[in-house]
Amino acid sequence: MNDGTIWLPEQASTLAPEIDALFYFVYWTSIVLFVGVVGAMLYFAYKYRRQHPGERPAPVKENKLLEISWIVIPTILVLIVFTWGFQSFVKMGTAPPNSYEITVTGEQWNWSFTYPNGTSITNELHVPVGRPVRLKMSSSDVIHSFFVPVFRTKQDVLPDRYTYLWFEATETGTFKAFCTEYCGTQHSAMDAKVVVHEQGDFQQWVKTGGGVADMPPAEYGKVLYERQGCNACHSLDGSDGTGPTWQGLYGTKNHPLSGGETVTVDANYLRESILQPGAKIAAGYGNVMPSNYNSLSERQVTSLIAFMKQQSDKTLDSGGAPLEGSAGAAQ
């Protein structure tokens, strides 16, 4: 395990040592050249300083060897860096044929990961150790860029086209991924966890849909609240965010909308707001919720609604009105 240096984080992929080696070759070569050039400059400035007024320095004679050396040596260094860098570039751009492919969607301001069996998760990338993984990436809105520092991999994520990135993790653990292309007001919060599992644990994780197969609805809804990125815009403590807080939201009567209307926040309204976020916009908020949530399964939608109900002490009767004695009945 490489715990990193003052310049670079730890290495956790097969690509990292090669990238680091090239970095340090350029780094130390630059230091040697800097010391040599500056040292020679200071030496010559002292040696050939004017000794007395009226001194006429002797003309410098031509030196073919010196002229050739300061052309040939830099050319060799440039060719070494180019060849080394090009080989690494080709290697990073060519995934092995046995790579495990995961589909990645970037959106303001979350990362969504979809696995071959249909398992989908937001802001958590789960991968196996010791097996190449290929990410097939696109954006649903603006340009993003997916960067995992410990893997030394980074690739722009573009709207309306696919870009690709691959890596092979060399150790288990939890790491960080970042968006490194400015994409809006919450760009700095657009990160994700990268969880590297042992092979057997990864297969089990995928098989059980991320370990949530048997969870009760509200408990699964809490997991989705984090995995689907709801927590980026909707708080649970009443604090304001990009979207309305979920604290006390369910059961609210006369909830104001941007068009001047009001609505009772019942299960139907919540379902519509998840699947068609632009249909009814809460007053004071913009229409910024991504539309990709219409791909959520029925279980995921009902679980999110169950979790939202848990965040409120209000209850509704079958007609959608607050029950007598509940907090909502007084509104």
Please provide a written account of the structure.
The protein has 6 helices and 12 strands. A hairpin with a 2-residue loop joins strand 1 and strand 2. It has a 5-stranded mixed β-sheet with strand order 3-2-1-5-8. It is α+β, with helices and mostly antiparallel strands. Helix content is 31%, strand content 19%. The C terminus is likely disordered. Among the domains are: 108 residues, Immunoglobulin-like, CATH 2.60.40.420; 114 residues, Cytochrome Bc1 Complex, Chain D, domain 2. It is elongated. The protein starts with 15 loop residues before the first helix and ends in a 21-residue tail after the last helix.
Order of helices and strands: HHEEEEEEEEEEHHEEHH
* CATH homologous superfamily heading of one domain: Cytochrome c-like domain
What's the CATH topology name of one domain?
Cytochrome Bc1 Complex, Chain D, domain 2
- The top level CATH class name of one domain: Mainly Alpha
- Report strand %: 15-25%
SSE diagram, text form:
Blueprint: H1 16-47, H2 64-93, E1 100-107, E2 110-114, E3 120-122, E4 124-128, E5 132-139, E6 144-148, E7 153-157, E8 163-168, E9 173-179, E10 191-197, H3 199-207, H4 217-227, E11 255-256, E12 262-263, H5 267-275, H6 298-310
Parallel strand pairs: 1-5, 4-10
Antiparallel strand pairs: 1-2, 2-3, 5-8, 6-7, 6-9, 9-10, 11-12
Helix pairs in contact: 1-2, 4-6
